[in-house]
Amino acid sequence: MHLTLVGLSHHTAPVDVRDQAVLTKSLQDKALSFVKTSTGILEAVLLSTCNRSEMYATTDEEHTDPGPIEAWFHEIHGVDKGVLSPYLYHRRDEAVIRHLFRVVSSLDSMVVGEQQILGQVREAYMQSLNTKTTGLVLNRLFEKALAVGKQVRETTEIGSGSVSVSSVAVELARKIFKDLRQHTAMLIGAGETGERTAEYLVDQGVKRLIVANRTYDRAADLAHRFDGIAVSLHDGLQMISDVDIVISSTGATEPVLGRDRMIDIMHDRHNRPIFLIDIAAPRDIDPRVRDLYNVILYDMDDLQSVVDDNAEARKVEAEKVEAIVETEVERLLAWYQNLSITPTIAQLRHFADDVRHQEVGRAFAQLGHLSEEDRETVDKMTRAIVNKLLHQPTVQLRNTSDPEHKDYHLYSLRHLFGLDEHRNEKNGAGNE
Fold it and tell me: Measured between alpha carbons, how far is 85 from 369 in angstroms, rounded to an integer?
């Protein structure tokens, strides 16, 4: 049995290609049902997010070629054969384990340390578990991966500190106002970063969002997306006294919010705190408003500085996570490699015990005068001899760390003791 991975992600494919490889939950159920009728695929888990689409599988010894699995990967996504091939990566055995552990630890994510991937991997695994397309190997692999992801979250700071300008802005707003559900935000202009920041604010439950723009229709479109209120730019500037968070990202060549206007706004607010986020270039807000009491202003340079500090801190934590991943890969790999050893050792012991049993039977037939106590003594002695003879080879086989040496020893052992012939003879006898 071999572990196999076929997939694509933001590392290998542009967004338009990734869009072709996204699977909805219903399509995943349909795709997983194909596994039960697919030759050579013993188990499968499909992981599909906006940034990656991957198939984890176990295959038998006769179906290790990734070609058929790659073709199957195209089929489940409804894409013509070969379209995705230039963007696909393939992993086997140890590399599959390491890849999944890095994925679930967010080391392989577009934003290192992001929180969503652990839940996405859990959901993908549970879906395959419910459709009964997993077994001994993938169950152990994914359960261990989820445990690794949880360990990483609990013992490192890999997920601390936002790493995008938009998320940093919202994180700062939460620190200032604690509960955003009690506060109103205004988006001035329709820049991409401002739009994304507004989206983060809405996700965090901001009480109300007002969208102000020179082109009212554009404001209406965005307001509809965020379930907010659309106003003209002129009206929006007059309403700032009633909001607590302002995100400004217009294309104006001069500031849209000057210091004198801000003095009037703070007077109308009775100096209640206001958070201004200026992510326009050139700047929309006069930087001198920083001097006013309870006015908190962050521009692009301020936010980027926080982003860089957080990203640098995550690099340090990423090294800790890599160490955890490598330790756990070695542990699971030892279990995985012993899957091939355990049946051979069990078969060798059965073979030895069959020989022992036959020879003891012949001896007892010739030594009919032995008492029951003597027979039990002889039986125990022969069992002890077999156990001692097999103990050292068994220990050596389990302790062989080099996969090539382990495979060689397994082959030699099976060949020298004729275990495959012995198994075939028993199977043939059982079928007669």
Answer: 75
